Amino acid sequence: MNPESPCPSCGYVRQSTDQHVHEGLCPNCGIAYQKWRDKSKRLNEEPSLDSVQSSLRQSPRHSFSSSLANVFLSVPESVPTPLFYGRLFILIIFSVWGMYFIVGGIDWQRIGGSFLHSVILPFHEFGHVLFIPFGRFMAILGGSLFQVAMPLALMFAFSLKNKDNFAAGLMLWWCGQSFIDISPYILDARYRALPLISGNESGHDWGNLLTMTNSLDKTELIAYSAFYIGSGLILVSIAWMGFILYKIKKQGLV
Predict the structure, then answer these.
(1) What is the mean pLDDT of residues 117-131?
(2) Nearest to residue 145, comparing CAs of 166, 172, 114, 124?
(3) How far apart are CA 96 and CA 104, in angstroms?
(4) Using alpha carbons only, what angle is made at residue 183 by residues 187 and 138, rounded to the nearest 5 degrees?
């Protein structure tokens, strides 16, 4: 320590007459200069109790939201130009197609007559078979359950495993459309008038499900809930895919 520097504890300045005291110690208060500095440095670097408690309260939430953003908003390091514009074209098509379903409301002719209904139908029927071991109720519900769960599972697979959030957004769109697809079926529960594969109204999934649960009086509520959930998922998926493409373009990854 410089002889003219004051003691960091008491402020005493060493004098020439203090040569009998070790230069590393303060002649006035006796502290060891270096140890004092080291201790002060550690105290300055260590967070206070309040800051630690605040960090413990905030960091899990912040960490969780950051982790979600890192997973579901991540983009690849580079994207070939043709692929980028191809996906932009797909986004436009699915945005228009999604609005077609949303604006049309629960219209069986529009929903059941869609090409996508024919694509979904095999998954719906497979769901019945898949859930047979869980009893009659689940076997009946399994058709509608599987047709909405399957694209949702693919969404997580694309996002978590393949790191492809645009494709995951498409799967979320499909999940939303699947909800819309079952809404006319639910709405028909009281009347059982829609054409069925079995050709027998006794095989009407939602007619049976709502009868078994004494919920036929809630038919409209359940049907419109399914429709609005599907509509919301479609809108979220469009925004998600759009943000992914925007982020890729903004970061110059094309």
Answers:
(1) 95
(2) 124
(3) 12
(4) 90
Block residue for tokens 């009281």: 190
Q: Which helix (H) or strand (E) holds 179?
A: helix 165-187
DSSP secondary structure code for residue 56 in this structure:
H
> Within 10 A of 62 (CB to CB), how many other CB atoms are there?
11
Q: Which amino acid is at 105?
A: G
Nearest to 151 by CA among 113, 203, 116: 116
Q: For the whole model, what pTM was predicted?
A: 0.75
Q: Is residue 7 domain-resident?
A: no
Number of domains in the chain: 1
d(CA 122, CA 106): 21
Beta pairing partners, 32: 25
- 194 burial class (0-12, 13-18, 19+ CB within 10 angstroms)? middle
CA neighbours closer than 13 Å in the CB half-sphere of residue 90: 15
Per residue in 236-250, pLDDT (tens digit) is 999 999 999 999 999
Residue 37 has pLDDT above 80, yes or no: no
Full residue range of the structural domain in which residue 146 is found? 79-250
Cβ atoms within 10 Å, residue 100: 11
Is the residue at 34 inside a domain? no
Contact 23, 7 (CB under 8 A): no
Which one-letter DSSP state was computed for residue 73? Answer: S
Residue 152 placed within a domain: yes
219 domain-assigned: yes
Distance in angstroms (rounded) separating the CA atoms of residues 166 and 253: 14
